[in-house]
């Protein structure tokens, strides 16, 4: 990580040549015995030192520091500062919770400070849009993929509209994923579309579309027919592989879900064909979600009861080892499972880096699993109340980063 | 530790208010500024440190002695630094970060910077201006606009007399 922008190199340079003189701040402070120092600390504090101090601030405080004066604003908005502050601190992923199903409003949860912030999302119309996030960017699309596709940094509020892939604007199902390269900030967006073949519920056309932020173009990577299976809304890019879930439509396909892997580097699907490379899921699952936790593929899902698979008896987290075997990491302890209160068997989960967030559609309670610490913890209570019985709550996880722009 | 041959070298440091301090060379060379002087052979007599007052220098020397007595264990060093800084007020921290910068002590500078940031993080814009002696050069309109940009960041800020 010792780039030319790192603190060590640039501060050494400046300190060695540091020949300016200053009087002790506290000495002056004591002499005059006043609240405010007569010679301002601001005048004797060199830019690089001030930068170093401010880089240790949490995100909300950095934005506030920019309101102190113009010099500070300039410092906290330089590219060097934004890059350095992200290196100095490890910031845990936040969770955005929609507080209305009709409007793009909600709160973002910071698990380090255990605080909810009212953050607005640009352009997104409602919580039913498909949302994917990676490395500080959040990508979202409405039903009309052709004209309603955006990528934004929810912290800095920078947003970019992306012209969707060629072909039909609407599909029966579409799964959105995004992957940001942390070094170059180049990103890739993938959309897996599933279209029913005229009137047959068993025959589906599945196509993969890839967007590259440098080329600024879409490529149609693959189109293949599936029988008895269809794609859905669940996909993630992880370690250079696009993973997505397919769902049984009956008609001989077998029950449940399967996982498909498409290698983005070689441009080939695992097993040569979509169906040839199916990987099973750990057990009968509901609400199965895929996520990238430090470039490992993780699945979260509800474990169905033996006799009634649509009723869940618990929630599990698995990691895919060697591209084939699921290994159980943990199951949600019963007291947390019960803690959701009104748990109506449908829940949302979203994760990145080292955190998995789980929330019941029925209420704003939010549970966090820390992969590093192997620890379950409730979030601080979200400052939103359930207003009507059928109100649904969803959300998504994203990394709070200042240095990345779409 | 390796067995010492003879008595360890001691350096004499002089603050800008003419206080003298004796410190083991092995601890003092945590400061790159002092180490360069020693290597250049200018450390024979008294080393004048024109930018550090006695009170701050005493504190820095306490730190130098404390941290150099800890064997290479980053965890232990970190907890020493945390404890060392835990009772320091803002003014002392400000003096220390300037001294650490002048003495070129990277680890102390980082620890104090982080501590100052921690003291600042929940404070209002007004508190920060007062403590740093900053004159607000925004017009009221400009300030309102820059605050409006990320107004969620003003939630839960500690209130004080005049923000």
UniProtKB/TrEMBL annotation, chain A:
Q: Does the keyword Plastid apply?
A: no
Provide the leader sequence positions: none
Q: What pathway is this protein said to act in by its record?
A: Protein modification; protein ubiquitination
UniProt entry tagged with the keyword Ribosomal protein? no
Which SMART domains does the record associate with it? FBOX
User: Which of UniProt's keywords are assigned here?
Assistant: Ubl conjugation pathway
Question: Can you say what this protein is called?
Answer: F-box domain-containing protein
Lineage of this protein's species?
Eukaryota, Viridiplantae, Streptophyta, Embryophyta, Tracheophyta
UniProtKB/TrEMBL annotation, chain B:
Instruction: Identify the residues that the record assigns to the SKP1 component dimerisation domain, covering every copy.
Output: 108-152
Give a Pfam family name: Skp1
Q: Which residues form the SKP1 component POZ domain?
A: 11-65
Q: Which UniProt keywords apply?
A: Ubl conjugation pathway
Function summary: Involved in ubiquitination and subsequent proteasomal degradation of target proteins. Together with CUL1, RBX1 and a F-box protein, it forms a SCF E3 ubiquitin ligase complex. The functional specificity of this complex depends on the type of F-box protein. In the SCF complex, it serves as an adapter that links the F-box protein to CUL1.
Instruction: Give the protein family.
Output: Belongs to the SKP1 family.
How does the annotation summarize its subunit structure?
Answer: Part of a SCF (SKP1-cullin-F-box) protein ligase complex.
Question: What protein name applies here?
Answer: SKP1-like protein
- Upper classification of the organism: Eukaryota, Viridiplantae, Streptophyta, Embryophyta, Tracheophyta
């Amino acid at each position: 990580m010792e780039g030319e922008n790192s603190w060590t190199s640039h501060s050494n340079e400046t300190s060695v040549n540091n020949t300016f003189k200053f009087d002790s701040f506290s000495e002056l402070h004591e002499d005059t015995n006043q609240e405010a120092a007569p010679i301002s600390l601001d005048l004797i504090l060199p830019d690089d030192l001030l930068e170093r101090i401010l880089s240790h601030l949490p995100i909300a405080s950095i934005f506030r520091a920019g309101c102190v004066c113009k010099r500070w604003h300039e410092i906290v908005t330089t590219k060097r500062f934004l890059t350095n502050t992200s290196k100095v601190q490890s910031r845990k992923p936040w969770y955005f919770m929609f507080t209305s199903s009709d409007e793009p409003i909600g709160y973002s949860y910071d698990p380090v400070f255990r605080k909810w912030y009212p953050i607005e999302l640009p352009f997104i119309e409602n919580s039913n849009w498909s949302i994917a996030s990676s490395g500080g960017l959040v990508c979202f699309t409405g039903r009309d993929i052709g004209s309603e596709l955006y990528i934004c940094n929810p912290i800095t509020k920078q947003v970019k509209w992306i012209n969707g892939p060629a072909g039909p604007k609407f599909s029966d199902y579409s799964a959105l994923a995004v992957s940001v390269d942390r070094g170059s900030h180049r990103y890739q967006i993938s959309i897996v579309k599933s279209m029913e073949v005229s009137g047959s519920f068993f025959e589906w056309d599945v196509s993969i579309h890839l967007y590259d932020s440098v080329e600024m173009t879409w490529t149609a990577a693959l189109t293949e027919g599936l029988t008895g299976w269809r794609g859905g809304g669940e996909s993630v890019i992880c370690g250079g592989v696009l993973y997505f879930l397919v769902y049984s439509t009956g008609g001989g396909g077998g029950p449940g879900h399967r996982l498909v892997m498409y290698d983005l580097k070689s441009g080939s699907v695992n097993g040569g064909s979509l169906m040839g490379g199916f990987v099973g899921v750990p057990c009968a699952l509901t609400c199965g979600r895929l996520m990238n936790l430090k470039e490992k593929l993780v699945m979260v899902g509800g474990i169905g009861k033996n006799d009634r698979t649509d009723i869940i008896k618990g929630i599990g987290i698995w990691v895919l080892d060697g591209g084939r075997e699921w290994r159980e990491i943990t199951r949600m302890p019963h007291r947390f499972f019960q803690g959701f209160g009104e748990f109506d068997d449908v829940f949302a989960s979203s994760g990145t880096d080292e955190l998995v967030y789980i929330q019941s559609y029925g209420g704003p309670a939010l549970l966090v699993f820390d992969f590093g610490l192997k620890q379950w913890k409730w979030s601080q209570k979200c400052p939103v109340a359930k207003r009507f019985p059928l109100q649904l709550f969803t959300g998504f996880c994203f990394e709070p980063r200042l240095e990345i722009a779409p | 530790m390796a067995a010492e041959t003879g008595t360890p070298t001691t350096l004499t440091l002089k603050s800008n208010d003419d206080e003298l301090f004796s410190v083991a060379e092995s601890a003092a060379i945590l400061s790159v500024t002092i180490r360069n002087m020693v290597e250049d052979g200018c450390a024979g007599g008294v080393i004048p440190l024109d930018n550090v007052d006695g009170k701050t220098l005493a504190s820095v020397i306490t730190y130098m002695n404390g941290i150099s007595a800890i064997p290479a264990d980053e965890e232990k060093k970190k907890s020493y630094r945390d404890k060392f800084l835990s009772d320091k007020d803002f003014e002392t921290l400000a003096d220390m970060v300037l001294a650490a910068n002048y003495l070129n002590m990277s680890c102390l500078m980082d620890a104090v910077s982080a501590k100052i940031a921690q003291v600042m993080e929940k404070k209002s814009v007004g508190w920060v201006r007062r403590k740093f002696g900053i004159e607000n050069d925004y017009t009221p309109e400009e300030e309102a606009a820059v605050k409006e940009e990320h107004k969620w960041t003003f939630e839960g800020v500690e209130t004080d007399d005049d923000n």
